[in-house]
Structure formats: structure tokens, C-alpha cells
């Protein structure tokens, strides 16, 4: 074998997955079609749950140092206020995709990930023991691995080679986007200014640089038609009546509102994650976030299977948990796309929607959806936190003070005992090679659960490496030890001594 896992694509999803697999000790090779990093700005930010997962791994400070936190967000251009009590990192971080990719690749390098550039996946053959991956590009080659994950973007070759359908809805509009200088602009920014035949925004991105976005509804551009500076300038002039002296394009691109999702996230030994598994209108800035969170859901599961600790069926939970998440993103971005269309009917709809969004519950509901803080995976169990991401509560341990997300640095599962219960230590002993037992105290009586809810601090929680709760016990009841052992077996494999 050349590697346990080959990842196609060194975008944000592929790089994050590579880091997750390396943290678990898996030998991973990333193959990337491009000779260099794209340098394309593309995504402009990361939401709360993505910041939390980077914090779980101890690398968030690198991103915070190069981005800027925003106090507001939007749903289809209508402002939202983020509730600062929902998370330790509640606000979106404005940071370009090129910077995110650079930081992820640096971290991957530190963990020993091999990234092979100018290497394009062109062929795939599966058998019982592994996959053979054909590479085109500068130096055609063949790689043999046990698993292949296609993180190769919306036009994924892996998805096509694996024969996975990509149903959905075609684009109904075309938007142009570019990072340019606008010397004649005398406003700080222009936000979603609507016109009878489209809308435009101008957002200050870095000192002297603006991101211009123009949307047109009278035609749908061919996917392969190049986006040019002249098109962006013409489009802005048509909508704004001026080009604000537009010059010096750093990056120009085009996007639409096509929304498609892979029918299956796994066929045999080939899996999909990120844009390879789902594409949608980039409204609300969710795409990169969903991809990074796909990677965090898949990484530890694939590692457990590769290392022989869990059966292959654990991988089916990746589809079961993440497919509905992206399905919901497609749904909310279709709604956002509908709310951007020109015309008096949409103007009226936006007014009504805007009058509803000021209600706290509506604002909180939409924020929790866009930030992915409200995700609850379909995991068996009675406790109110089962399936949810664990809140990052403060802890007191024998070693001092800390917090829950810090316990997930090594991407290992944690049984958190908040009551000092000898039964728990006994129950987890048979998994002690795979699961860390941590005894601690929580000073808070209640923990926040987005959107706008809370639960009583629990007596114990079994936390998966992705930060989601697999089992829990309340303070006022005895822990259900058979259910704990069942959860340990389901997620982390059979006990050492049956
Ligand atoms: C204009 C725009 C604005 C956006 N804004 C936001 C935002 O604010 N927030 C947000 O979260 N998302 C945003 N997105 C979406 C975001 O850019 C994508 O969701 C994100 O890039 C997906 O990451 P990925 O790693 O899954 O795929 P990609 O970033 O597409 O990476 C795929 C990689 O695979 C490589 N590749 C392709 N084919 C092969 C092959 N056969 N073999 C080997 N390598 C291959 C590619 O070269 C590429 O490097 C925006 C998108 C656009 C277009």
C-alpha cells in the first residue's frame, strides 16, 4: 500500500480531513491537481461551529490572528445579530479562503501529511482490499490505498468515477465576484442594493481592497465561460450607474444558485466530502464550513476502521449524520436565493421577512442554523445533549481549571465524569486504549444549548472526537451503565475483554 487513505483535493475539506486522520495515526496522502495553492479568495469567512472545531484541535489562534471577527451576519442580505451567549466563539471570522488553506496546509505539514501537487485523479478501481487510484498530470502514476476520499470540489472526478448521482436543481441566475480597487467609492460599503434587474454589494475586505458582487437574473452563464474584469465592470456600471474607478483585479469569478447533493456519500471504499458531496448558492457563507465539518465527522470514523478498531458499518453513520446537514443547507440557500430575486413581490417578501427577523427567537433560530451550532445527529440515547455538540463549559480538574473543548486536542474520545463515579471508571476500563477518562467538576448549574436553550449540567458525558455527545447521565439519576457500554461499542468498537 502507498497509503492507508488517499485524499483527492487539497482544498479546505481535504486538508482538514488529512489532519484529522494524521492525529489518529493514519498514513495519509493528499493528491492535488493544481501545481500551487489557488490564491483564490473565494470564501470570506468561518462560522462559530468551524471556529469551535479548530479550537478543539488547538489551532484556532492561528486563524484568529489573521482574520477579523464580525458582530453581524445575514440571511439573504437581511441582517442578523449573533447571540454571544451561544458559544465561546459566537461571531463569524472574516478570513479569506486562500489564508484558510495556507494555515491548514501548514498544520498538515507539521502533522506529517504528504501533499503531492500536479497530481490529478483520473481513474479508480476498487476491490475487496483497497482502491487503485490512477493519477494524471506531470508524472502519471498509480497509487494503491485502502480508502479514497474525494474532496475534489463540485465537479468531483471521484464522484463520477464512483458512479454516484448528483441530483438537484440547476442555476437560475448568475453572479460575478471580484476583489478590486475602487478609488472613486465614497461610501464605506454598499450592502445588497436592489435594482429592478439585479442587485450589487461592495464590501471592504482589506485596506484599499473591495469585494464586488453583482447578480443578474436575465441569463444563466455557461459553467465553463471565463469570468472577466470587463464583465464585472459592465455589470457594476449597469446596476450602480458607475464603476467607481474599478481597477487592479486580484481575482474574478462567477457563481450561481445551482443546488445539488450526492445521493450517497460512500460507495465501497470511495467516500465524498465537502463540495464534492454538495454544492449550493454561497449565501450566508456556509459551504467551506460544511466541508470542514464533514471532514471532522468522517476523520475519526475512517481512522477507527483503518486501524481495525471499529467495523466498516461505522462509516455508514457518516452519510446518515452528514447528508441531512447538507440537505438543510441546500434548503436554506434555495430560500435565500429566492429572496434575492428582483421584483415587487420579492421586495414585499423581504419586508415581511425583515420584520420577522427582529424577533429574538427568529434571529436566534437562523443564526444557529447558519453557524451549525444547533446540529443534532440521530444518535440513540435519552440525555438532552446526545447527538449535539458538547457545550464548551468551564471545568475544574485535579490539574487546575480548563474547559471541555480543550479535552479534544488529540481527537480521542473522552468519558467526562463530573461526579466522581467509580462505576464509570470500571465501565470504560475495557476501552482504556481508545477512550480517555477525565474526572472534573463543572461550576455552572446550566449549560447553553443553541438556539436559546439550556440544560442542567450533567453527571457524565461520552464525547466523540468530533465533539458530539454519544451518551449522557444526569445528576439526579444513576448512570445507565449498559447504555454506556453499548455506546462505547457502537462508536469505538468492541471491548478488549468481552
Ligand atoms: C464566490 C464564492 C464565495 C464563497 N463564499 C463562501 C463563504 O463565505 N463561506 C463559506 O463557507 N463558503 C463559501 N464559498 C464556498 C467555498 O468556497 C467552498 O464550499 C469550499 O471551497 C469547498 O471546499 P472543498 O475543499 O470541499 O472544495 P474545493 O475548495 O473546491 O477544493 C477541491 C480541490 O480539489 C482539487 N481537485 C479537483 N479535481 C481533482 C482531481 N481530479 N484530482 C486531484 N485534485 C482535484 C481542486 O484543484 C481543489 O484544490 C464560496 C464559494 C464561492 C464560489
TrEMBL record:
The cross-references to InterPro entries, in alphabetical order and at most eight, read: FAD-bd (IPR002938), FAD/NAD-bd_sf (IPR036188), RIFMO-like (IPR050641)
Domain FAD-binding residues, every copy: 2-332
**One short Pfam family name for this protein?**
Rng_hyd_C
Q: Coiled-coil stretches, from where to where?
A: none
Signal peptide location: none
Cofactor(s) recorded in Swiss-Prot or TrEMBL: FAD
Keywords, ordered alphabetically: FAD, Flavoprotein
**Listed GO MF terms:** FAD binding; oxidoreductase activity, acting on paired donors, with incorporation or reduction of molecular oxygen, NAD(P)H as one donor, and incorporation of one atom of oxygen
Carries keyword Iron-sulfur? no
Judging by the UniProt lineage, the source's domain of life is Bacteria
Fetch the PANTHER family from UniProt: BINDING MONOOXYGENASE, PUTATIVE (JCVI)-RELATED (PTHR43004:SF19), TRK SYSTEM POTASSIUM UPTAKE PROTEIN (PTHR43004)
* Record's protein name: FAD-binding domain-containing protein
What is the species listed in this Swiss-Prot or TrEMBL entry? Embleya scabrispora
Amino acid at each position: 500500500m502507498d497509503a492507508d487513505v488517499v485524499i483527492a483535493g487539497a482544498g479546505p475539506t481535504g486538508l482538514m480531513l488529512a489532519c484529522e486522520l494524521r492525529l489518529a495515526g493514519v498514513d495519509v496522502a493528499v493528491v492535488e491537481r493544481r501545481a500551487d495553492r489557488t490564491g483564490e479568495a473565494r470564501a470570506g469567512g468561518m462560522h462559530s461551529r468551524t471556529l469551535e472545531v479548530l479550537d478543539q484541535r488547538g489551532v484556532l489562534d492561528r486563524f484568529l490572528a489573521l482574520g477579523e471577527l464580525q458582530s453581524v451576519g445575514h440571511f439573504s442580505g437581511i441582517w442578523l445579530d449573533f447571540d454571544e451567549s451561544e458559544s465561546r466563539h459566537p461571531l463569524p471570522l472574516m478570513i479569506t479562503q486562500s489564508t484558510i488553506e495556507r494555515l491548514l496546509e501548514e498544520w498538515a505539514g507539521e502533522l506529517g501529511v504528504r501533499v503531492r501537487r500536479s497530481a490529478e485523479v483520473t481513474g479508480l478501481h476498487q476491490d475487496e482490499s483497497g482502491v487503485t487510484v490512477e493519477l494524471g498530470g506531470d508524472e502519471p502514476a498509480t497509487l494503491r490505498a485502502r480508502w479514497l476520499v474525494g474532496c475534489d470540489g463540485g465537479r468531483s472526478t471521484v464522484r463520477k468515477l464512483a458512479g454516484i448521482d448528483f441530483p438537484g436543481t440547476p442555476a437560475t441566475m448568475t453572479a460575478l465576484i471580484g476583489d478590486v480597487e475602487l478609488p472613486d467609492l465614497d461610501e464605506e460599503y454598499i450592502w445588497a442594493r436592489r435594482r429592478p434587474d439585479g442587485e450589487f454589494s461592495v464590501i471592504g475586505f482589506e485596506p484599499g481592497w473591495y469585494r464586488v458582487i453583482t447578480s443578474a437574473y436575465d441569463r444563466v452563464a455557461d459553467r465553463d465561460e471565463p469570468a472577466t474584469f470587463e464583465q464585472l465592470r459592465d455589470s457594476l456600471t449597469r446596476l450602480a450607474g458607475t464603476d467607481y474607478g474599478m481597477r487592479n483585479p486580484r481575482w474574478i469569478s462567477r457563481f450561481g444558485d445551482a443546488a445539488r447533493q450526492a445521493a450517497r456519500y460512500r460507495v465501497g471504499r470511495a467516500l465524498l466530502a465537502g463540495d464534492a458531496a454538495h454544492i449550493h448558492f454561497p449565501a450566508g457563507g456556509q459551504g467551506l464550513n460544511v466541508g470542514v465539518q464533514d471532514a471532522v465527522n468522517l476523520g475519526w470514523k475512517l481512522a477507527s476502521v483503518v486501524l481495525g478498531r471499529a467495523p466498516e458499518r461505522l462509516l455508514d453513520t457518516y452519510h446518515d449524520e452528514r447528508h441531512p446537514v447538507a440537505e438543510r443547507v441546500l434548503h436554506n440557500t434555495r430560500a435565500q436565493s429566492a429572496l434575492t430575486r428582483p421584483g415587487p413581490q420579492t421586495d414585499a417578501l423581504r419586508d415581511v421577512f425583515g420584520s420577522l427577523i427582529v424577533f429574538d427567537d427568529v434571529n436566534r433560530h437562523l443564526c444557529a442554523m447558519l453557524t451549525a451550532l444547533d446540529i443534532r445527529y440521530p444518535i440513540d440515547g435519552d440525555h438532552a445533549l446526545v447527538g449535539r455538540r458538547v457545550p464548551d463549559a468551564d471545568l475544574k480538574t485535579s490539574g487546575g481549571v480548563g474547559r471541555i473543548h480543550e479535552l479534544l486536542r488529540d481527537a480521542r474520545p473522552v468519558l467526562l465524569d463530573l461526579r466522581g463515579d467509580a462505576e464509570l471508571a470500571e465501565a470504560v476500563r475495557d476501552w482504556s486504549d481508545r477512550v480517555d477518562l477525565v474526572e472534573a467538576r463543572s461550576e455552572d448549574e446550566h449549560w447553553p444549548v443553541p438556539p436559546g436553550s439550556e440544560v442542567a449540567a450533567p453527571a457524565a458525558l461520552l464525547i466523540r472526537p468530533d465533539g458530539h455527545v454519544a451518551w449522557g447521565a444526569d445528576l439526579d439519576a444513576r448512570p445507565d451503565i449498559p447504555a454506556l457500554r453499548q455506546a462505547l461499542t457502537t462508536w469505538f468498537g468492541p471491548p478488549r475483554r468481552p
